Amino acid sequence: MRTYRPGQIKPSEITNQDIWLKRRQLIKAGMAAGAGLLLGGASGLAAAVYAGPGKNQKIALLKESDYGAGMEPTRYKSITTYNNFYELGYGKRAPAENADALKTRPWSVKVSGECARPGVMDIEDIMKLDQEERIYRFRCVEAWSMVVPWVGIPLGSFLKRFEPGSKAKYVEFETLYDPERMPGQRREVIDWPYREGLRIDEAMHPLALLATGLYGEVLPGQNGAPLRLVVPWKYGFKSIKSIVSIRFTEEQPINTWNAIAGDEYGFFANVNPKVPHPRWSQRRHRVLGRGIFGSKEDTLLFNGYAEDVASLYSGMDLRKNF
Ligand code: MTE
Predict the structure, then answer these.
(1) CA 13/CA 18 separation, integer angstroms
(2) Which atom of ligand 1 has the smallest separation from the CA of 175?
(3) Per residue in 91-119, pLDDT tens?
(4) In this structure, which CATH number among 2.40.50.100, 3.90.420.10, 3.40.50.2000, 3.40.50.1820 belongs to the domain 11-17+53-313?
């Protein structure tokens, strides 16, 4: 088992190569234009637009990605007070109320299974990967939707560091199991720890994100601190929070909601207005932050990211593989 240290991390490994190259060019241009003014201006702009309320530690050097350009972010307060996180309680407000229980230090993530370089990475080192980071504005959908300016590491570039092999067909994620830090686990409501899984090509897709922050600050506990998954074309329950283990597997892993109610929650969980949940339609959803009842909107196939992700599912019957 290898322990990764920041010294081993090259910026070129973290972001995809051409984004990294563009960034190097930007830095060069900035220097030529005078003392990095251009770069400072760009990150300053993003930080101003997405400044959080100053409650949590700031994440420096933010840069926007193209994903979600033109979307209006949901208010910070709405994003952080209407949550599902059973480990921190069972109502929508409970996770925010109980978030102090979740101590996020010490914290490390173990990466294991079908890969050439399994290892353990400390959260401080994972946070350093953010140095080249960007803001992603993603729309998230459950029965409600919100647009979240996430900060994070593309999941694929993180996973590639561990060199998954040909038997790595899936990726399994697990949340911390610690009833001290996660009071909701004192009740046997689900078979803890919470688990989630993706097919390897889904995990490698540039839209899949390991989020470490939102609104330019580190994640608050209720949103899955210190590290959670964001898969913007899937329903929210795929976005596992407070991850401590990532494992490459040959077999399709168990995911918590599928294990609890397999007829209601499939492994894929792709946003699809044409495939109703057995107990409700998925054609429309409420937009968070638009009043108590919120105005409803039509739900889009793959949550509006069809152009980017539909090819992952070509030839699959999405009614069966829901
Ligand atoms: N992850 C863990 N560990 N425990 C949970 O209860 N709930 C899921 C998902 N990730 C959950 C979890 C569900 S049902 C949803 S809708 C999203 O988190 C909500 O994420 P948000 O609170 O940031 O909107």
Answers:
(1) 11
(2) 3
(3) 999 999 999 999 999 999 999 999 999 99
(4) 3.90.420.10
